[in-house]
């Protein structure tokens, strides 16, 4: 029955950058099961988040509103679960609803999932092994690898659901979030292999705003002993083992496996840390890929594939050594872009790519639209169902608004907002914490960045202040004003 309402299986991992999926042209890994979704459906090359950090992105996805509206602007600003969300609306309209895996929008009755017939969630970030989860309000201890367990729970729920009503299942992985702990099955992957370093690995942060240089998310300096799986004394394990560049000689690190490593120089040390980091990150992804394959097989075996919308995405992107970094937060491409592949055989033709701009802000309205339900007027995105069906509205967006609020909180990233069009990006670092207490040195100046993404896709050359681009800046500032007004947000006081 082509007219029946679709099931929605929303698979979201944590910190999985698009450039670590085979279907996005990864140079560093293969993801055959995730690629299958793209091959049998559509890949969006310009899916962006409006605030590149875990909790805010999740809150935006659920509520269809910007961070300043749902008030989850930062980590720790937990979701008030009395707010309307997409699960509540689908539930009221006859859908069976469930969430398994990472929630990360707060714990306790004020923050637990609402709108779900069934929920079984990790507490906070959750561990890679032996998670204690909260199932419909009761703690349950599990044994095993979290990626496998969450998949078991997803399949178990699918098995026990009613076949008579459509479902919404949010199947959320913890992986591949820091500290990147693979299971035994994947621990040996990439042994003896050098993963290629990205083109901007040795970025020196010149020609940029001060924010890039100030960020403490560098591969060489800021990865800690837990990240790198080093053998260290308890109590010093969060220290960052990096000697001054002229003291590399004679410096050694000892891995948890018991190998002692020395380095010919700073570049060798940085490269070694990158390999340690990226291999574990990719091993965690390999497990996600295997497990998503299990769920796709389940859909096939139970004749659910045709009328089920399957989405694979991640709450935001990640730096994979790009700019010498790990982590996210910045409005730069690797962090801003979300992978987004979707399969829906009943309505979406297989094997094509869209370059239209979609946002995490749009997901709720798109789900409702696909289910034939009108979205509430307070939601701030736009359904892209017509894009899925190969029709682009003439007035589809050509720009998007971004805002990162956590000024200097983690990794010393400056708060900023900006606008991205298909060609350009304009960012404003407003150098203030909106009244948040702040014990770290304030940045000296407020700064703008302008990038020409066609000429400079790696965003290495800030063109702001160059008279040749003054007209572009003027246009982009006007567009930024328009988008802020549309979102109900405001320019930072004193922006200049
Ligand atoms: Ca995340």
Notes on the structure:
The chain is of the alpha/beta class. It folds into 3 domains: 7-182 and 282-395, Alkaline Phosphatase, subunit A (3-Layer(aba) Sandwich); 210-274, no CATH class; 401-487, Arylsulfatase, C-terminal domain (2-Layer Sandwich). The chain contains 12 helices and 17 strands. The protein has helices at 32-39, 54-63, 67-70, 86-92, 146-160, 210-214, 225-228, 266-301, 333-336, 363-370, 385-388, 470-487, and strands at 7-13, 42-48, 96-101, 118-122, 132-135, 138-141, 167-172, 252-254, 260-262, 308-314, 337-338, 340-343, 352-359, 399-404, 416-421, 424-429, 447-452. The strands form 3 sheets. Strands 1, 2, 3, 4, 5, 6, 7, 10, 11, 12 and 13 form an 11-stranded mixed beta sheet that branches. A 4-stranded antiparallel beta sheet has the order 14-15-16-17, with helices on one face. Strand 8 and strand 9 (260-262) form a beta hairpin. Helix 5 (146-160) runs parallel beside helix 8. The radius of gyration is 22 Å and the shape is globular. The model is unreliable at 434-440 (pLDDT under 50).
